[in-house]
Specification:
Elements: H1 6-10, H2 15-42, H3 47-52, H4 56-64, E1 72-73, H5 76-86, H6 89-92, H7 97-117, H8 129-147, H9 163-171, H10 175-190, H11 193-201, H12 206-213, H13 216-231, H14 255-287, H15 293-309, E2 316-317, H16 319-327, H17 334-349, H18 351-354, H19 359-370, H20 376-385, H21 387-402, H22 405-425, E3 429-434, E4 441-443, E5 458-463, H23 472-485, E6 491-495, H24 504-519, E7 523-527, H25 531-538, H26 542-545, E8 550-551, H27 554-560
Parallel strand pairs: 5-6, 6-7, 7-8
Antiparallel strand pairs: 1-2, 3-4, 3-5
Helix pairs in contact: 2-16, 2-17, 2-19, 4-15, 4-17, 5-8, 5-14, 7-14, 7-15, 8-19, 8-20, 8-21, 8-22, 10-13, 10-19, 11-12, 14-15, 20-21, 21-22
Length: 565
């Protein structure tokens, strides 16, 4: 993989690709203007932060990223993490929350770059999908709690569990703001399924349908802005945005503040990377491409650092903007370059027009985008499939809601490892029997194809896990219990079909088991040992001391030990 992936696909770039990228870039820019502003406000930052973060970082990722269609910009989950970090007492004491936000972007970028240099792209595998889903659902609920009052013209309530307080709180709803929010909601919902159905009925092309249904956000913004201005409604607007492009700077280097913000920056970097790589892989699979995790870390790290240099907030691959980009026909990252150029033109020439966008509309845009991320049913599905994963997902969600974003994610990861260790320390073990007149063996405890052939003086045990210090005692206890239940056993055969490794602790325990069985006149045998495990065991004394033999397969063991063919 080249350090500059753009050079690889530019060699085969065609004029037809540019036409598609041009259209997709413009459509995505139309989405990112209000969405970028909305996410900046969600992070409790000035609106221009969201716009600045969608210009230079986009260009950086276009050159260095390995995904041809991933759209990099502020995302809702990271925005709420920024807001949560800025509100922390230790961070508040630093003063200047805007500088803290810039430092978060720079520091998380540096963390990603260090991870890239250490080849830690596979770190994404340590966050299970249930934990990530629980975290996303919890963060989405926090975003809904944060944005819903804005659609009513209210501040975030501080009522706790005092229900009378809420009654007084909702009586202060701004009717003009509520009216504006409902108009925006109706437009956004219409531009989803209803408009697509209507266009299909009149015979519109798929390209036209995809283009028009992606314009709901800009139509909602323009319509409600005009309604508020023409009707002179008492509705809060985003206010004036500085015209022109930001000056590049590195005055955010402050090691005292970086030390305080390090834990939060680490979590933000982790979530930004996991979110980005997940979306990039989905897009790559559908387009026959390949994503290089460490190169993605490099691209995202420099993108975030460039966001800080241009006075912006953290960025990552976003699902909604990426899907819009792809649906609009994007072929390569040239679409992202065009998006960045469109946003730069908007900031330079149209900042005066943006200032009249109602804040309530931006809140509605976020709510419509974020509600599908709340997946409560997923918790019950996970619990039904695997209790360990289900508990981790549920506790991550609750932890995010009641403890905090970082604490909830940490709790989920911790529970995932506990569940993994429990499964590893309690492996599935089967006592095998043979299907009569065949060379096939099955678990005698749950076989449902009739009677199995079993022997009073032969015990076949299949261990469905690598044997390690974590589970060797469980395995030893299992064999001991089976021998007590079958006192006539003269031969024990461990079937290593699923054993991929044996560590030193387990090896010593197997050697001791061999000696114990030898003392009571029981032979200890192995079967179906994989080559890697066989080579390791050859370096030990187990084969020399073995009271039995090592057989090629289970059928050979049964036959040579004298139990028929």
């Amino acid at each position: 993989m080249s350090f500059f992936p753009i050079l690889e696909w530019l060699r085969t770039y065609r004029r037809a690709d540019f036409s598609s990228d041009l259209f997709a870039g413009v459509v995505t820019a139309i989405l990112l203007v209000p969405q970028g502003i909305a996410l900046a406000l969600l992070a409790h930052l000035p609106p221009e932060f969201g716009l600045y973060s969608s210009i230079l970082p986009c260009l950086i990722y276009a050159v260095l990223g390995t995904s041809r269609t991933l759209s990099v910009s502020p995302i809702s989950i990271v925005a709420i993490m920024i807001a949560s970090t800025i509100a922390l007492p230790a961070v508040s004491q630093l003063g200047n929350p805007l500088q803290s936000a810039v430092i978060l972007s720079a520091e998380s970028g540096v963390i990603m770059l260090i991870m890239a240099m250490c080849r830690m792209g596979g770190l994404v595998n340590f966050i299970s999908q249930p934990v990530l889903t629980g975290f996303t659902s919890g963060a989405a609920l926090l975003i809904i709690q944060n944005q819903l009052p804005l659609t009513l013209g209210l501040k975030i309530p501080q009522c706790g569990f005092e229900w009378n307080c809420y009654e007084i709180y909702f009586q202060n709803t701004n009717s003009a703001t509520l009216f504006t929010s409902l108009i925006a909601l109706a437009i956004l919902l219409f531009f989803k399924a209803p408009l697509a159905v209507l266009l299909r009925e009149i015979g519109a092309s798929i390209t036209l349908i995809n283009a028009l249904t992606k314009c709901g956000v800009i139509v909602a913004v323009i319509s409600t802005t005009l309604i508020v201005l023409q009707g002179q409604l008492n509705v809060a607007v985003i206010g004036k945005i500085p015209a022109g492009l930001p000056m590049l700077r590195i005055d955010f280097i402050d090691f005292v503040k970086w030390k305080v913000l390090l834990p939060s920056a680490t979590f933000i970097a982790l979530i930004a990377y996991v979110n980005s790589i997940a979306i990039a892989k989905v897009m790559a699979n559908s387009h026959g491409e390949k994503i290089e995790p460490n190169q993605e870390l490099l691209a995202l790290g420099l993108a975030n650092f460039s966001a800080a240099m241009s006075g912006g907030m953290n960025v990552a691959g976003g699902f909604s903007q990426t899907m819009v980009n792809v649906a609009a026909g994007a072929r390569t990252q040239i679409a992202t370059v065009i998006t960045a150029l469109c946003l730069a033109i908007t900031v330079v020439f149209f900042s005066d027009s943006i200032q009249y966008i109602p804040k309530a509309v931006l809140a509605v845009i976020i709510l419509v985008a974020i509600v599908p991320l709340v997946k409560i049913k997923s918790v019950f599905h996970s619990l039904h499939y695997d209790k360990g994963d289900g508990i981790a997902e549920a506790m991550t969600l609750l932890g995010v809601l009641f403890l905090g974003l970082e604490e909830g994610l940490t709790l989920g990861i911790f529970l995932t490892f506990i569940s993994y260790l429990r499964k590893t320390s309690h492996p599935h073990i089967a006592v095998l029997g043979r299907i009569p007149n065949t060379p096939y063996f099955r678990n005698s405890k749950n076989h449902c194809m009739g009677d199995l052939e079993l022997w009073d003086d032969l015990l076949l045990v299949r261990i469905d896990e690598s044997i390690t210090f974590a589970n060797i005692n469980f395995i030893d206890d299992f064999i001991d219990a089976e021998l007590k239940a079958a006192p006539l056993v003269k031969h024990v055969v461990l079937v290593f079909t699923s054993v991929s490794d044996i560590d030193m602790t387990a090896l010593q325990a197997l050697e001791q088991l061999n000696l114990n069985l030898k003392k009571v006149g029981i032979s200890f045998n192995l079967a179906e040992v994989k080559h890697f495990v066989f080579v390791k065991l050859e370096r030990s004394h187990l084969f020399e001391q073995l009271s039995g033999e090592v057989f090629f397969d289970t059928q050979e063991a049964v036959s040579k030990l004298g139990f028929g063919h």
